[in-house]
C-alpha cells in the first residue's frame, strides 16, 4: 500500500460528496505531555443522508457553525451525526444537532421530539456494520484507539471509497505515533489494515486527507 496527500478538502460524487470542513491537528505543547488538538470534521451530503462525522471540541462551536453555513448546510439539515468515538475533541458539539440521529462509538440514538432520545440497538460491538444508507454510507467497527471506535465509509465517490477514520489514523505517515495513543495497538493495527484494503481516500483524525494506492 502506498499513500499520498489528497491535496484537496472535497471529493465529489453521486449521490454523495465528501467535504472536510475542518482538517484536524495535534501539536505537542508542553513537557508534561499535554498537546493542542482538535479533530477533523467531515460532511457527507447529496443523498437522503446528510451526515457529519465528528463535531470537534466545544471550543470550536462558533467555527463549526460558520463552516456549516459556508457549506450551505444548516445544523437542522443534518440527519446523522456519526462520532468515531467519545473523546472530547470529537463529540464537543452534539447539542447543535437535536434533530439528528446520533452515533457515538457503538451507541446509536434517534430524536423523539421533546421526549428526548431513543436508544437504537446496533451490532457494531459484534463486528456488524451499521448502514445509514445501505450501499453508500456505512459505519464500520474499527476498534483499537478505543474499544468502541468506528470509521465511516462513503462509497461511489469520484475517487472511490472515502473513509472518515477518526483516530484510527492520526495522520498520513503516522507510524511510530499512533501506537502511543492506542488502548489496544494490536487490535488497531488489524483495523487499520482492514480500512486500507477498502479505502481510496482516508480522512484521518488529526491531519490532512490522503489517497491510498494498492499495488
TrEMBL record:
Organism encoding this protein: Asarcornis scutulata
Compartment(s): Cytoplasm, Cytosol
Highest taxon in the source lineage: Eukaryota
Record field: catalytic activity: a ribonucleotidyl-ribonucleotide-RNA + H2O = a 3'-end ribonucleotide-RNA + a 5'-end 5'-phospho-ribonucleoside-RNA + H(+)
GO CC annotation terms, alphabetical: cytosol
Function: Endoribonuclease that catalyzes the hydrolysis of histone-coding pre-mRNA 3'-end. Involved in histone pre-mRNA processing during the S-phase of the cell cycle, which is required for entering/progressing through S-phase. Cleaves histone pre-mRNA at a major and a minor cleavage site after the 5'-ACCCA-3' and the 5'-ACCCACA-3' sequence, respectively, and located downstream of the stem-loop. May require the presence of the HDE element located at the histone pre-RNA 3'-end to avoid non-specific cleavage.
Protein name from the UniProt record: Metallo-beta-lactamase domain-containing protein 1
Metallo-beta-lactamase domain sequence ranges: 38-206
Subunit: Homodimer.
InterPro entries according to UniProt: MBLAC1 (IPR039344), Metallo-B-lactamas (IPR001279), RibonucZ/Hydroxyglut_hydro (IPR036866)
Family: Belongs to the metallo-beta-lactamase superfamily. Glyoxalase II family.
